[in-house]
Amino acid sequence: MDRPFLRPTWAEISLPALRANLKRLRSRLPSKTKLLFVVKGDAYGHGALACSRLAQRSGVVDWLGVSSVEEGAALRDAGVRLPILVLGSLYPFESFRAAAFYGLVPTVASLDSARRLEEMMRRIARRSACHIKVETGMGRIGMTPRAALDALGVLSAQREVRVGGVYTHFACAESNRQFTEMQIGRFNRFLAAAAARNLRTGLRHAANSAGALEYPGSRFDMVRPGLAAYGLYEGFEPVLTLKTKIVFIKMVKPGTPIGYGAAFRAKRRTRVATVPIGYADGFSRGLSNKGEALVGGRRCPVVGTVAMDMTMLDVTQAKGARVGDEVVLLGRSGRSEIPAGEVARKLGTIPYEVVCSISGRVPRVCLP
Ligand SMILES: Cc1ncc(COP(=O)(O)O)c(C=O)c1O
């Protein structure tokens, strides 16, 4: 028997919205530009399997990007056939064996890992493609352009590993044009140096969502959006809606304390609803006395401290609210919306973290 899903807290994933966003991205790109859809971090909390399957069916996605061999292997085990690039730097180097077994393309981010990949492929008598990561200003993983040229040289002299691509990543495409153009310039100079040495680079790519949409010069052969596909970027439709239901409701007198630490006291007669969502679901404790939820389309403030499994809302303004009513904590309800960006600002973080934090305890329900 399927395990029952009774606790009324769930995240709706609109597959039509995801499809529309991917198509919109596709339509904003030259037809020869390939589209790699980033599904790492369980598709930014949206559910990697459902999102990858939709991407495969959509016919507009050429590649998927994951962060680890484990993430890629889970997609392969579930029958996803699109080419998959592992964006993280693989370690232990033993990971190259599993990557080859699952037909995943690893990132090579150092000269040492280029050699280890070649060694491993020779040892297990297999061949692998790889993409080389070039550091242009992100300061995370990747080789300096000079080391990347050396790695291209080393790999072009053997048969086990084929360089299928070279790429870089932007540090602030959303916020700093000058810096991003500096990164594009460095990457272009690296590509020119590789061409001058007759070194084959395969697919050249650099752009995340902001790069793909705002910097046509950064599109090269492929772009790698995540955020825009999930509708967390201006002009795209949010894919995820975090929902719960009122499970308890009461009227309290002025002065009544609410929740841990009695961090809220009612100033007037207040209708307080309890919803079964808390920080163990990824609804941050930082939203205590700060967050809002939509009840019948009306914004209702979080009152008191967000607990591990429960949160209280002041529903006085949502006339007629009662047990069983649906509550939206993130996303749209009718004409009202609580965007991830708004929640992120309240928490001093970014929308990526807001959606990635929704825990495994929250079932993802795909709307077809
Ligand atoms: C290497 C790499 N490429 C692409 C992306 C997608 O970025 P965005 O979600 O801003 O489009 C990420 C996400 O962090 C990334 O790490």
Give the number of DSSP strands. 20
The small-molecule ligands in this entry are: pyridoxal-5'-phosphate
Note the total helix count. 11
Regarding quaternary structure, what we see is single chain
CATH fold naming of the largest domain: TIM Barrel
Mean pLDDT: 97
How large is the radius of gyration? Answer: 24 Å
- Which architecture name of the largest domain does CATH use? Alpha-Beta Barrel
Specify the overall morphology. Answer: elongated
CATH 4th-level superfamily of the largest domain: Alanine racemase
Sheet with the most strands, sense and barrel status: 10 strands, mixed
Protein architecture, described:
Helix 1 crosses helix 3, helix 6 runs parallel beside helix 7 and helix 7 packs parallel to helix 8. The chain is an alpha/beta fold and 368 residues long. The protein has two domains: 209 residues, Alpha-Beta Barrel (TIM Barrel), CATH 3.20.20.10; 99 residues, Lyase, Ornithine Decarboxylase, Chain A, domain 1. Strands 1, 10, 11, 14, 15, 16, 17, 18, 19 and 20 form a ten-stranded mixed β-sheet that branches. It is elongated and about 80 Å long. It is built from eleven helices and 20 strands. The longest helix has 20 residues. Strand 5, helix 6 and strand 6 form a beta-alpha-beta unit. Pyridoxal-5'-phosphate (PLP) binds next to loops. The site of pyridoxal-5'-phosphate has 9 residues, from loops.
